Amino acid sequence: MTNIQSSTDINRLITGIWLPQFAERTQGEYSRHLTTFFNHFQGLKITEYNTPMLQEYADLYPASINGVKSLFTFLKNTGVLRFNPAHPVKIRGLNAEVAEIRQQKHDLNFLTSTQIDSLLASVLGYKERYKGQVYRDYAMFRLMLATGLRVNEACSLKWWAVRVHQRSSKDGQHKSVGRIKVSKTTGKGGKSREIDFSLETLNILLELRGDSAEMDYVFNSRKGGKIDTSQVRRNLKKYLKAAGFDKVSIDSISCHTLRHTFATEMLKNGADIRQVQKALGHSSTQTTDRYLHDERITDTSKFLQY
Known about the structure:
By secondary structure, the chain is mainly α. The protein folds into two domains: 97 residues, DNA polymerase, domain 1, CATH 1.10.150.130; 185 residues, Intergrase catalytic core (hpI Integrase, Chain A, Orthogonal Bundle). The chain contains 14 helices and three strands. Strands 1-2-3 form a three-stranded antiparallel sheet. Strand 1 and strand 2 form a beta hairpin. Helix 7 runs antiparallel to helix 9 and helix 7 packs across helix 12. The longest helix is centred in the first third of the chain and has 17 residues.
């Protein structure tokens, strides 16, 4: 057995060898899985885990266990562990979407209209050396709030998928709106979808384009090319802190919170559950049902104008 047991050595193996073997999207998912896992078992050495405790964890966090099982398999194959305690662990009787629901129920949150305004104002007002990045982040977070895009979908968005769309009403009137298409290769589960949003947000988005070609990414890093999802997550935390959110709130708010906010606001303001299902790209309304809150029947104002 390889004599690697310290947390520092394990972290080097994870970040230097294990994670890089996966696609970028999977790296992000597995990183979140491990953050949840190690926060749950604080202080344990990697050799102190056993199958019963891992099965109990899988029952509590079923959507996070795949990344954990993959890591333990890697540690066994590289000689760090004599045996793999995660090998017998199973997600008992749950499909992937139900597992996702169970994991997210305990931390499902969303932003109020006041919090949204505070966040967006803090982005625009942030004192950043590279002002172009600030405007990029403002456009990106606004678009995510307007469309419910996952962070990897926003990072992968290209200009060919951004359009002006003429929407027809029942009285024969036409209204110009923005429309984005999430392709099968970008959307979760290989599903494509189209989402409409306000013309105002589209115009903000188009300010970023310049002379970019159709196949160029909408949101670029400072060095050029596609912005990384981890950078977007760090930026969000930075702006939340600048907006005066307390530490507990900052820790609990993620890019997925913007997606939750989009869905919750639609339902609060009268949207049909299947409309929200289609916009979010869920294959089942069972996944979308977790956004149903009591607020749905107390607020009949219009959808958020983003």
